[in-house]
């Protein structure tokens, strides 16, 4: 009911779908990963890479971003499965260019470019119990936003109460450099597409409602996404 799309890349045909939006202790990584038990269960996905194996054009995509309000360091790409590097792929869809499609089963976010192409980003997604699907839209967007834990998180994790009035923007803020706030029927869903500086979360289900992209990828998507852009979240 959401879309009828298929990936036409030959190299995609051999990729297996993997089971798969922000919570935890009072530091950036723990908020995203959840409880200590969740941390213990989390493992790196895919195969390891070395600097010599990373193409220069990929390294350039994920290099440092020094001119930001809070300078962003380069991504440690050895912690990212190469399948999750940003790339342009064939993606047949009836959706209009500019539509964002979240595919939690495969840990991807697509931005429809038109002519059967899409920009594909590796992502982290919701952990079991918090997965959802349906149609939303970008109701607002922000650079280096203040993060305020929802009351549901504070109820689950009382240590988050210290940020009930908001955590200022910065590298330690769980929303990172850019965020797209997802709305339905004029109301904020409490879910976002946000930026993460934790590369080892890409390709995992770790959040409780949000979808995270590497900071460099999120800046790229953010610049191409106006308010009211359609967002489709596929079933996991």
Describe what this molecule looks like in 3D.
The structure is a single chain. This protein is α+β, with helices and mostly antiparallel strands. The chain has a single domain (18-233), classed as L,D-transpeptidase catalytic domain-like (Beta Barrel). It is 14% helix and 28% strand. It contains five helices and twelve strands. The strands form two sheets. A ten-stranded mixed beta sheet has the order 1-2-5-4-3-12-7-8-9-11, with helices on one face. The chain has a two-stranded parallel sheet with strand order 6-10. Strand 8 (178-184) and strand 9 (187-196) form a beta hairpin. The radius of gyration is 17 Å and the shape is globular. The two termini are 14 Å apart. One of its GO terms (cellular component) is extracellular region. Belongs to the YkuD family. Keywords: Cell shape, Cell wall biogenesis/degradation, Glycosyltransferase, Hydrolase, Peptidoglycan synthesis, Transferase.
